[in-house]
Amino acid sequence: VQLQASGGGLVQAGGSLRLSCEASGIDFKLYDMVWYRQPPGKERDVVAIITSTGSTNYASSVKGRFTISRENAQNTVYLQMNSLKPEDTAVYYCNALTWNKKPFASWGQGTLVTVSS
């Protein structure tokens, strides 16, 4: 799988960003897709997941502020981020989940989101 995340940038607290991630090398519509983030000096964690059937789930820290969606015709998953906080600062990655619900080994370069206070 190849993953290309984009849409990051510098935004003030309270602002919004929309991240995109295009996947190739897989039959996109069959896979659950996940957004992760890795803050500076910390481990990578799950932010949001959308299943192949469109069900969604969110980390408690972003619930009500972030929305994950997908467009199968474009092989793309999105993350709409509203009411951003400085603690949302991180490199954001997407990945697909394999049959055993683990992410693929290939992560792509991610996209940096910086939220200023």
Please, could you describe this protein's structure?
The N and C termini lie far apart (36 Å). Helix content is 0%, strand content 49%. It is built from no helices and ten strands. The strands form two sheets. Strands 2-10-9-4-5-6 form a six-stranded mixed β-sheet, with no helix packed on it. Strand 4 (33-38) and strand 5 form a beta hairpin. By secondary structure, it is mostly beta strands.
Strand order of the largest sheet: 2-10-9-4-5-6
Unreliable runs = none
Write down the secondary-structure element order.
EEEEEEEEEE
The helix count comes to 0
The helix-and-strand class reads: mainly beta
Gyration radius from CA atoms, angstroms: 13 Å
Percent of residues in β-strands: over 45%
| Quaternary assembly | single chain
Shape: globular
At a glance:
This protein has 117 residues and is mostly beta strands. The protein has strands at 2-6, 9-12, 17-24, 33-38, 45-50, 56-58, 66-71, 76-81, 90-96, 111-116.
Provide keyphrases for this structure.
four-stranded antiparallel β-sheet, 117 residues, globular, six-stranded mixed β-sheet, mainly beta
List the helices and strands and how they pair.
Blueprint: E1 2-6, E2 9-12, E3 17-24, E4 33-38, E5 45-50, E6 56-58, E7 66-71, E8 76-81, E9 90-96, E10 111-116
Parallel strand pairs: 2-10
Antiparallel strand pairs: 1-3, 3-8, 4-5, 4-9, 5-6, 7-8, 9-10
